Amino acid sequence: MTDALPGEESGTPLGEVLVMGAGTIGCYIGGRLAAAGVPVTFVGRPRVLQKLADHGLSLSDLDGAKHHILPSALRLCEQVPAGARPALVLLCVKSGATAEAAGELAFALPAGTTVVSLQNGISNSAAASQAGPSLNVLPGMVPYNVAEIGEGAFHRGTPGRLAAKDDAALRPWLPVFERAGVPLDLHDDLLPVQWGKLLLNLNNPVNALSGLPLREELMHRGYRQCFAALIDETLGVLGVSGIVPAQVAAVPAQRLSSLLRLPDWLFRIVAARMLRIDAKARSSMADDLALGRRTEIDALSGEVVRLAQEHGLSAPRNARMVALLEAWPNQPERWPARRLQDALGL
Length: 346
Fold this sequence. Notes:
Shape: globular
Number of helices: 15
Strand order of the largest sheet: 6-3-2-7-8-9-12-13
Distance between the termini: 48 Å
Mean pLDDT: 91
Strand content: 15-25%
Order of helices and strands: EEHEHEEEEHEHEEEEHEHHHHHHHHHH
Largest sheet: 8 strands, mixed
Radius of gyration: 20 Å
């Protein structure tokens, strides 16, 4: 592993990138871009920025890549800097902070600034556009898991490629993201991709309540059955809505729930590609629970409940997950698989 300074690697940067929300995703993707020579400004909470100022930014992944950016090379701000003119903004705040962040960006940045929402759920880009109508907000999707594993250290524990809605402003950035090791694919219609990712993210609340690392939780059939039940309910709602989710995982979404229900010994064999997850990986929702923060359950299961209601349906299991995560701070405890199955009526 070598220490990196912006501009060290070959290639001409297209301009500055501003990361709005220096959390796990923002630090990882912004850090990989910075390590590849792109000038990056990180806007975040004082707690995170202080860690970066003290320790620098260390990045690793399941493929063995390692990078470290020295504290002196990091541009860290608690607010969007006055006079900032970034060529690209990566919106990485939690869903509940979307409107506030977009409003700040719209106030500080020139009209037409391109903002890519790299957030969970379906509705964040629309919320950002409403709060910051002068911005060119594009929906995006992050397929992989990133965990904070130390002071200023972030680890990508699962594979995948970023996705965003196709836009002329993003096309010149494709080789930059590729060179940085965070490849980006553009889609004419990102909604099927977003729903394909949301189906996978329905494991986040299961993982958070289990209290287990991601891979270990997926090796328990009881937890997988809970995950599968949430997927099945969501696929039913999507079918009525006329939405066909894109394949984001190693298997199509329609086959995923059957795969999850296999006995443990067979699941290990059949789902070998799906289990390409290292022991450090955990859901960001689990981190939120551990830190006593509000989770993004409303942007996951809540999206399913709202879509169901739009079509005169109900999604009781996803609604139950919303209720369990919102109630957790009042009684923080690990949920055994059988107890969670009972709560979901399985």
